[in-house]
Amino acid sequence: MLSQKTRYAIRAMQHLADRHGKGPIPLAEIADAQNIPAKFLTVILSELARFGIVASQRGKDGGYWLGVSPIDITYGDLIRVMRGSLALVPCASRFAHETCKNCVEEKDCRTRALMLQVRDATAELLDGVRLSDQIELAPVAEDAEAQGLPG
Q1: Which of 16, 19, 76, 136 is least surrounded, with the fewest CB atoms within 10 Å of its CB?
Q2: What is the pTM of this model?
Q3: How confident is the model at residue 101 (pLDDT cuts 50, 70, 90)?
């Protein structure tokens, strides 16, 4: 599962992408529109600014905006910045690999082999979707049940 911090970061970045080119967006607007605690959002946006993904301006007319075009930011990029990896287990990470503690040898671990496949499929999907892309909304659980769709 994605951490709450990562989910907040994605929502904040979507908000900024929707307003790309419209000048600084006040923190309060992002926090209110995306239902993110303002203090936590400040920390998240500061972290994203350190990576150059977000820029900011202080003062009365200040706020935040994307530091790069939304077409140049993938969802994979955002998750890697916030989590450090797309992998579900440390031994399946391509860029932050760690040997799992209390496990069998990596060469003999079927779980690792499966998680590498999951990681690669996840990366292919998330690296193929950019902040500038439209994402079709999915029905909520109650709607899916009403339509007879699997939840």
Answers
A1: 136
A2: 0.85
A3: confident
